[in-house]
Amino acid sequence: MLSGGSDGVIVLYDLENFSRKPCYTCKAICSVGRSHPDVHRFSVETVQWYPHDTGMFTSSSFDKTLKIWDTNTLQPAEVFHFEGTVYSHHMSPVATKHCLIAVGTKSPKVQLCDLKSGSCSHILQGHRQEVLAVSWSPRHEYILATASADGRVKLWDVRRASGCLTTLDQHNGEKSKASSEAANTAHNGRVNGLCYTNDGLHLLTIGTDDRMRLWNSSTGENTLVNYGKVCNESRKGLKFAISCGCNPEFAFVPYGSTIAVYTIFSGELITMLRGHYNTVDCCVFQPNFQELYSGSKDCNILAWIPALREPIPDDISEKSLSQQHLNPAYEDAWSSSEDEG
Amino acid sequence: MERRRRRRPLADTFSAKRPRGEAPPGEPPLHGSPQAVEAALRDVAALFPRGLFGDALPPLVLRHQLYSLVRDRTTVDRHLNRLRDEGRIRLLHLGFEADALGVVFMEPYTAKVLQAVAGKPQAGLVRRFLETAVAACPELSYEQSRMRALGFADADVTQLVAAGVLTVRDAGSWWLAVPGAGRFIKAFVRGRRALLAVIRRSRYKEVALAELGQRRSLAGARLGVAYHVHDLVGAQLVHRIPSASGTLLRLAET
């Protein structure tokens, strides 16, 4: 797993658990530390593996650069410079005909950088304020979604010269619902995070108006699923994750110092995952292990593993209580004898 | 002003309690059905104090109050939209918050509006407006072009605004409104603030629900404690927590 920190450091972890214990620590294999000559000068905002193999990875940071790294030598193979701080970048996971990296920066123009030629080949114009999140569709290799601080989410086909395909409208075209300034916006505030579902048919967006919305990605229609208040105070992008391979699919959204788990299509809040001591900034789902990894301001990355638990029977007797299998992290080591101490 | 966030005590961080199969007692059922939504709507409408404003207002329910009775918000929204399209209820923009929509049943609404303008010169115009525009278009607001198409000139619209049936939204568009709703909104905002202040002043930012009904300092809650509690829980400003000694209302953290 690749992780970038707010001090500019990038660390690679090995997630395999060979220790056969339910609680384990993943080892860091290698890192681009503060002493590396090409380390990022400010906070690393987004890191992504090269979609086809782990020989390469990309990282973008507040120091206005996007760096392409060779994993084996840990040297940057290419550096792209921008005029504003880079909030987010994404490379298409399904692209075979292009190697474009979409970059969202402080400027309202979305830049597309080509890996093959090493230059910024395209600019997508349409937003009015900084672009906080970008995401390629996992279904179509030319469709890109971008989210901006002006409250708009735009879907683009990068082959078209003329402009965006659709701007998502939270009221689905009913102009009567909003005040006139908020017409044609996806959220009533900055749009912080974007995530496509794995089949690419739906798009989840989250904004600073404390709302999360689910959109049909082909028509751009708001499905009006109501998740309630999803507190969001982040001034930069919020990275949340959608599960892959579960039925029903879940969204894992950082909510203060906890992670809220919602069912995507019904809007139900399943649970809050508590474990971090400070604000959770990002979470990512590993579909092969079905595990969630979350990073937080308390300098920890936690791994959340689904626990296989049987429901408690209604009549709890003394005998069955003692047979409960409790995770050793929750067991206390107090002695039960009253004679000691 | 820097917002202070209350940090949860450390013991809360690792909660080793296993979730039970069904919802904890005291919480509303999870999956709402249309009947549950309609029953919830009637329950909250019954809590509305009719005599308080001299019986001039129809029972107003806020949409988020229903979320405290039926936990599945998406079902509530979808069923309300269906009732609105059938013409049995009306959604109104109340004006104190961007998202807070009021829900009224259609018959009490038309009855009260006509009662409010009875005897005034605008009565005939208001009746014509209710029969054509309000019955035909189930939307929250009206544009100038739509009003002209329905046969209401600018002078008519001015009279409707004076009667209180329309409120100005923007240059050339108006929200549908209830005449006399200003007093309701003032009492509502005052009551909400009073209740939140009571909870905020308590030591652990939580109050037992049973005790809340008996406090004398809640003279500000003129619409009734139960009505305001549904509003606070539905708007996610407080959490309703079942405990061994009854239900507690705890202030939400952010």
UniProtKB/TrEMBL annotation, chain A:
Database matches in Pfam families: WD40
UniProt key word DNA repair: yes
InterPro entries listed in its UniProt record: Rad28/ERCC8/Ckn1/ATCSA-1 (IPR042238), WD40/YVTN_repeat-like_dom_sf (IPR015943), WD40_PAC1 (IPR020472), WD40_repeat_CS (IPR019775), WD40_repeat_dom_sf (IPR036322), WD40_rpt (IPR001680)
WD repeats: 37-79, 124-166, 184-225, 273-304
Keywords annotated in UniProt: DNA damage, DNA repair, Repeat, WD repeat
Domain of life: Eukaryota
Keyword Zinc found: no
Region Disordered, annotated ranges: 321-341
PANTHER family recorded: DNA EXCISION REPAIR PROTEIN ERCC-8
Annotated protein name in UniProt: DNA excision repair protein ERCC-8 isoform X4
Organism whose genome encodes this protein: Apteryx mantelli (North Island brown kiwi)
Name of the encoding gene: ERCC8
TrEMBL record, chain B:
Positions of the UniProt region annotated as Disordered: 1-34
Domain of life: Eukaryota
InterPro entries reported in the protein's UniProt record: STK19-like
Family of this protein: Belongs to the STK19 family.
Name of the protein in its database record: Inactive serine/threonine-protein kinase 19-like
Species of origin: Apteryx mantelli (North Island brown kiwi)
Gene field: LOC136996294
